[in-house]
Structure formats: C-alpha cells, structure tokens
From TrEMBL:
It is a single-pass membrane protein. This is Uncharacterized protein. GO terms for cellular component: membrane. SUPFAM superfamilies: L domain-like. It is found in: Membrane. Belongs to the RLP family. The chain crosses the membrane at residues 197-221, 227-243. It comes from the Eukaryota. Keywords: Glycoprotein, Leucine-rich repeat, Membrane, Repeat, Transmembrane, Transmembrane helix. PANTHER family: RECEPTOR-LIKE PROTEIN 12, RECEPTOR-LIKE PROTEIN 14. The keyword Transmembrane applies. It comes from Trifolium subterraneum.
C-alpha cells in the first residue's frame, strides 16, 4: 500500500532501509512523519512510530499478469493487500490463509479461476474482502466468522460461484440449508405427522376398496353370493355354539 505524504508543513521524513535476504522485505522506520494510510476502504492519518505497524501493498491498476505468487502468503504482518484490476490468472493461493493480520483483501477484476480456498475462513481480522468479477467457481467459504459479514457484492461477477450470501444454492435440490437446529426438529416432527396421516388415509382407502370389490363380485355372480352367505351363516353358527358352550361352564 503506497504511503502518501500530505503534511502541509512539509515535515521531514527519515527512512532507514534494511534489506533482509530471508524474506525480501524492505523494513522502514518512520520518524517525525505524518502520513495517510488507506485500509478497509477508508483513509486514516497516522504519525510517528505508529507507522511501523501499518503495512500494505497496493498493486491495483498495473496490468500485471500471470499467477499470483504464493510467496505473498509469507507476509504475515501485512494489513492490506490490493491486487485488483489486473490480469492475474490461475487460482487464489491457499497460502493467503497465513495473512493472519490482514484487514483488507481485494482480488477483484482479474481472471482468477478455481475455487476460493476454504482455508481463508481462518482470517479473523478480515473486514474487507472482494473477489468480484473473476472466473471463480464452486462454493463460497463457510459462512461463519468474518465471512458471515460479507454480502453478495464481494462475490458478484462469478457466474459459477454458489453458496451464501449468493442467491445460487450449491444444493442440487435447490433447497437452502436450514441453519437453526430448532427448525430441523420442527421439520422432522412435521414429516412424522405427514407420514402417519398418509398411512391412515391409505389404510381407509384400501379397506374401502376391498369391501367395494367384494360387494361388486357378490352382486354380479349369484353363485359366489350364495357361497358367501352360506359361509357367513356357518361362521355365525359356529361362533354362537362356541359362546353358548363356554358360557354354560360358568353358570
């Protein structure tokens, strides 16, 4: 992120540059300085030694191309990273999950593809996030933590992305997942009640259908009607004799 000196009094700025071959980062010490640092879509004024803790990279609008170097994930103390409006291709490096202190991450308006690394959900300091207008696909990161605060504008312009907060669901059935456990319990109770209701209705319909079929057969065929009443009478007589014989034992 560039630092822009807007001090009207022209305060003197001193830089001590120490190059570290291990990480390739130029360390700066600011003394008697007043600067503006842009992060989280707002510009703030910082003075003196506090600038040591303000670090960022803004490479937007530079027509850069190729893949994003995964080594950028080694900048663990960076606060802001803006790579928007370039021609970057390939996947978003999963190493960006190491940017533990990053507050603003803007990768919009590139040609990035593949899935957004789910590991990014561990970035608890992230307040501004945008991958809009790329060629990303698959599910958005888990809608929890800081990622639950980002709206649809953070992902717009990626027609193959799905999942909250986008209206397109990753569920093949097209049904949005239920988020409340109580809602799940209510759905299960409703399903049980519907199943029991369907069973009772089916039983009554089946029983009625059987009676109607028997009545139709007896009405159409006199022989079967005669046999039916004969067996009905026989069963009735046997039941009467059984009851009479058993009742006599008690009286």
């Amino acid at each position: 992120m560039p630092f822009e000196n807007k001090d009207p009094e022209g305060l003197r700025t001193q830089f001590n540059h120490d190059y570290s071959p291990l990480n390739g980062i130029i360390k700066k010490r600011f003394e008697n300085e007043k600067d503006y640092f842009t992060s989280k879509k707002r510009s703030e004024t910082y003075t003196t030694s506090i600038l040591i803790y303000m670090s960022g990279i803004d490479l937007s609008h530079n027509k850069l191309n190729g893949s994003i170097p995964s080594e950028l994930g080694n900048l663990t103390r960076i606060r802001s990273l803006n790579l928007s409006n370039n021609f970057f291709i390939g996947k978003i490096p999963a190493t960006f999950s190491n940017l533990a202190q990053v507050e603003s991450l803007d990768l919009s308006f590139n040609m990035l593809s593949g899935q957004i690394p789910p590991q990014l959900s561990v970035l608890t300091s992230l307040e501004v996030f945008s991958v809009a207008h790329n060629n990303l696909s698959g599910a958005t990161p888990e809608w929890e933590g800081q990622f639950s605060t980002f709206n649809e504008s953070s992902y717009e312009g990626n027609q193959f992305l799905c999942g909250p907060p986008l209206p397109k669901s990753c569920n093949p059935s097209g049904q949005a997942p239920t988020t409340l456990p109580n809602g799940l319990n209510n759905d299960e109770e409703n399903d049980s009640w519907v199943d029991m209701y369907v069973f009772r209705v089916s039983f009554v319909v089946a029983y009625t259908s059987i009676l109607l079929v028997i009545a139709a057969v007896l009405y159409i065929n006199p022989y079967w009607r005669q046999v039916w009443f004969y067996y009905i009478g026989l069963v009735g007589m046997n039941c009467y004799n059984f009851i009479q014989d058993n009742l006599c034992k008690f009286f």
